[in-house]
Structures are given as structure tokens and as C-alpha cells.
Design brief:
By secondary structure, this protein is of the alpha+beta class. 28% of the residues lie in helices and 27% in strands. It has helices at 9-26, 144-147, 160-177, 188-207; strands spanning 30-38, 43-47, 64-68, 74-81, 86-92, 103-107, 111-116, 122-127, 133-136, 211-212.
Length: 213
């Protein structure tokens, strides 16, 4: 827990991953942002002794000290993309019982696609002119490029740890090829872009206006 932040507490830690994922799966680039931050809990409890991540509920009340906080714990950012599309991202560290849940929804003219990390092997497909569907992960139903990111057959669940496994598999594949050309895993350029996006989002929140990326 940080008491002060320069790039925005919640966006530099959480929102950056979501923006990177959004640009990756859509193939679009964010060109403008409009941000609104909020500090919902101006005072938080800081552990007085070392604890492992996500084990705070095991501590007693006397194991904490109250600390004033001036970084945001909630943020909403409106987005404009390079193809004219628009979107919105909401990030929160205070939603009750949401355990690192990440959800994406893309609404088209005839279909809507929704996915969330708590049910990673399912994708909901909403149809305007037909029945809705729940698409279950099965490599036999994917194209060759997408199926390469799935290790197990349909009915055998994969989850959060598999995302790192698949990423490093691609890293080592490129190392064996002796080139980083066409790399689909995050690079230093991707990291730099997320820093730029976070800076523009922080600027937008401070100026209360749209900011170009």
C-alpha cells in the first residue's frame, strides 16, 4: 500500500494490465483518454508486521495502524480508439468480494462478447437476432493460431497460472528461432506504451479534460 503515487496508484498497478490486454485482443490503439479518480477510503489500515499478499484477514485489529491515503482506489476512464470506436474502463480496489476480477465486454452491431477472469474457460456471446450462447474453451473449435495457446483438450480447465506459462512458451520459441520479429508477448515497447498511457490518464484526471496519447 502506497501513501503517495505519481502515476496513479490504481491505474499503474491494475489499469495498465487491462489497457494492454484491451489493445492486444482488439488490435486497436487508444488515442485519447478522459479520466476521473476517486479516493473512497482516505484512511486505511497498514499491517504492523510483514504479511504475505492476500492474507490480511488473518491479522488481528491490533496488528494494524491507521494511515491517511491520498492515492485513488477507484477510477473510470473513457477511451477513444484509432478507428473511431469508444470505450470505458472502470477499475476498483474497493469492490466488496471481487478477488482480482477482470472482465471485458465488446459490443458490436449484431453481437456482444463478454468474458471474465473468474470463469476463464467461458465466453458469453449475445446475439441480436438469435439465441445467446456460452462458448466453452476447446482447442478443436479455435483457429490454428488461437489453438496454439491452449494446452489441454476441451473439458480440462486452464486458468490464471497458464497465462504466464503460455507467455513464456512464446518467449522461448522466439529465442530458439533467434529473432524477436513478430513477437506477441509483451516487450519493452509495450511497457513504455503503458507508462505513457498512465501519464496521460493522470494528466487527464488533474486537468479534467480529454488528453491525447
Amino acid at each position: 500500500m502506497r501513501e503517495k503515487g505519481e502515476l496513479g496508484e490504481i491505474y499503474s498497478i491494475i489499469g495498465s494490465h487491462l489497457m494492454d490486454l484491451l489493445e492486444y485482443i482488439s488490435g486497436l490503439k487508444i488515442t485519447e483518454v478522459m479520466a476521473d479518480f476517486k479516493t473512497i477510503h482516505p484512511v486505511r489500515k497498514k499491517p504492523l508486521k510483514p504479511v504475505e499478499t492476500f492474507t490480511g484477514k488473518m491479522l488481528l485489529p491490533e496488528d494494524y495502524a491507521e494511515v491517511p491515503i491520498n492515492t485513488e482506489d477507484y477510477a473510470t476512464v473513457m477511451l477513444r480508439f484509432d478507428n473511431g470506436n469508444k470505450g470505458v474502463i472502470t477499475v476498483s480496489q474497493v469492490a466488496a468480494d471481487r478477488k482480482n476480477r477482470l472482465s471485458l465486454e465488446i459490443a458490436g452491431s449484431k453481437q456482444t462478447f463478454a468474458w471474465n477472469s473468474e470463469s476463464p474457460n467461458e465466453m458469453w456471446i449475445g446475439r441480436r437476432e438469435a439465441a445467446n450462447q456460452v462458448f466453452m474453451r476447446d482447442p478443436a473449435l479455435f483457429d490454428k493460431e488461437s489453438a496454439a495457446l491452449i494446452s489441454f483438450p476441451g473439458g480440462h480447465n486452464e486458468g490464471f497460472p497458464d497465462t504466464s506459462k503460455q507467455m513464456f512458451k512464446e518467449v522461448y520459441d522466439n529465442i530458439r528461432k533467434g529473432t524477436m520479429e513478430g513477437a506477441k508477448f509483451p516487450t519493452f515497447a509495450d511497457g513504455l506504451r503503458e507508462l505513457v498511457l498512465c501519464e496521460r490518464i493522470l494528466e487527464s484526471n488533474e486537468k479534467e479534460c480529454w488528453v491525447k496519447v
